[in-house]
């Protein structure tokens, strides 16, 4: 069921001055100012002033759901498809507690969601009043930032701050808890109380030239590099995905993506190995295991991908590009892990990384002769590698101990045999 409020204001009436508008009306004004046009929610007693104000607001559309968890999931889908912040409106008590699963999902998947919860009046907070709940305490582990508004004069600034935090850096959910008396109160003209910030909104930093050169050198000298992309590419938009695709194609190296990153690189491309991880393709996992360089863009080395950390990419150096500094070095991929990392906006890093394909150590191309793509293919398909004995420990083996050939030109895999006396043959499956 959908409730749409599109009736124009009566002729001859004018909008009341901001100082005469109550907290609920000021909250809706701030949402409209922040570019919000759609809300998902379920009404309740502590949120009725907000719904009263919404009934007379033609600039906002409200979509009624049957459960608060469904409201958050609907807001997630809206945020993913439009690029805007998904806004949820619920009441206190079971209303806000029912949103926790959806907020956790948005937190895990980096989806910008603003949850606005009604709360009992400030005069009875802490007295176990009807449907009182500790919204801040419950939501703290599953939100980037939460705040309880204590004055009608705080409302506008709190909404602006919440929308900015939800979209900035690594996107995620935030929660505003608005007591019922604050929704009804009118601003008295006093200075607006400060709203605590989770962090100052960072400006895009300049990527150090030396760091880019070091990354270019690592990519240029690697023999078996693999590009590993994640959901950060998708969240950063089409420009980031296009830049990532150009970089992968220019190097000629194979590419794999996480579940959240699917779509960031074309699945029809011959360099595509399929999805990575325990539910991914054999080709992608073998390529990662044998790589000597892993370029991670917008992924977090999740345990569904790494498995046993001490056996994940044991011979590889790692370049990690991520918008969230806390994701850098969060997990150790191996005891002997040698990694170089940078925390930056994925789209900026990907765009600048296009210069990596033009940069070569000492100003020359790889090996001084062959093109970069040709050198990559030679590393994966050298005759020596194809005739290597099964006794070699550096190649993957089948259940009978036979080595499995690496791709000659992805996604085609060649069958190999252990030797003239062996009847066992191993052939890789088709690319996913």
Describe this structure in words.
Helix 3 packs parallel to helix 5 and helix 11 runs parallel beside helix 14 (346-352). The chain is built from 16 helices and 15 strands. Helix content is 32%, strand content 16%. The longest helix is centred in the N-terminal third of the chain and has 15 residues, at 68-82. It has 432 residues and is an alpha/beta fold. The chain has two domains: 2-184, 3-Layer(aba) Sandwich (Rossmann fold); 209-384, TPP-binding domain (Rossmann fold, 3-Layer(aba) Sandwich), CATH 3.40.50.1220. Strands 1-3-2-4-5-7-6 form a seven-stranded mixed sheet, with helices on both faces. The two termini are 40 Å apart. The chain has helices at 23-33, 48-55, 68-82, 94-97, 100-109, 135-139, 155-167, 180-184, 209-221, 231-236, 238-251, 282-290, 303-306, 346-352, 372-381, 383-386, and strands at 2-4, 38-41, 61-64, 86-90, 113-119, 145-148, 173-179, 225-229, 255-257, 272-275, 293-297, 317-322, 338-343, 416-417, 425-426. 43% of the residues are buried. Helix 2 (48-55) links the parallel strand 2 and strand 3.
């Amino acid at each position: 069921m959908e409730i749409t409020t599109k009736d124009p204001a009566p002729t001859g009436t004018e909008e009341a001055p901001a100082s005469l508008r109550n907290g609920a009306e000021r909250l809706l004004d701030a949402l409209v100012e922040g570019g919000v046009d759609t809300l998902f929610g379920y009404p309740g007693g502590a949120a009725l002033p907000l719904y009263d104000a919404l009934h007379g607001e033609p600039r906002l559309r409200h979509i009624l759901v049957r459960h608060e968890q469904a409201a958050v999931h609907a807001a997630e889908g809206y945020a993913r498809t439009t690029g805007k912040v998904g806004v949820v409106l619920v009441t206190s008590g079971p209303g806000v507690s029912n949103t926790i699963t959806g907020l956790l999902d948005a937190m895990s998947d980096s989806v910008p969601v603003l949850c606005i919860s009604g709360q009992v009046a400030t005069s009875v907070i802490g007295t176990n009043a009807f449907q009182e709940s500790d919204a801040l305490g419950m939501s703290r582990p599953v939100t980037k930032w939460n705040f309880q508004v204590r004055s009608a004069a705080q409302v506008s600034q709190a909404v602006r701050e919440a929308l900015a935090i939800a979209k900035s850096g690594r996107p995620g959910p935030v929660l505003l808890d608005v007591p019922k008396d604050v929704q009804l109160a009118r601003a008295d003209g006093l200075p607006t109380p400060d709203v605590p910030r989770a962090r100052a909104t960072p400006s895009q930093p300049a990527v150090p030239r030396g760091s880019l050169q070091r990354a270019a050198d690592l990519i240029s000298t690697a023999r078996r590099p693999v590009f590993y992309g994640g959901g950060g590419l998708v969240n950063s938009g089409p420009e980031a995905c296009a830049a990532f695709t150009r970089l992968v194609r220019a190097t000629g190296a194979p590419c794999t993506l996480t579940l959240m990153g699917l779509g960031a690189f074309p699945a029809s491309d011959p360099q595509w190995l399929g999805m990575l991880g325990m539910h991914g393709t054999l080709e992608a996992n073998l390529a990662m295991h044998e790589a000597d360089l892993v370029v991670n863009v917008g992924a977090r080395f999740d345990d569904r991908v790494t498995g046993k950390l001490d056996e994940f990419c044991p011979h590889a150096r790692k370049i990690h590009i991520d918008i969230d500094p806390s994701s850098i070095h969060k997990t150790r991929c191996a005891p002997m892990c040698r990694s170089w990392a940078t925390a930056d906006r994925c789209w900026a890093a990907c765009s600048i990384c296009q210069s990596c394909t033009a940069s070569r150590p000492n100003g020359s191309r790889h090996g001084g002769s062959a093109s970069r793509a040709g050198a990559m293919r030679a590393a994966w398909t050298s005759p020596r590698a194809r005739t290597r004995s099964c006794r070699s420990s550096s190649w993957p083996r089948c259940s009978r101990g036979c080595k499995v050939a690496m791709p000659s030109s992805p996604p085609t895999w060649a069958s190999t045999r252990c030797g003239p006396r062996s009847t066992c043959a191993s052939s890789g499956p088709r690319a996913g």
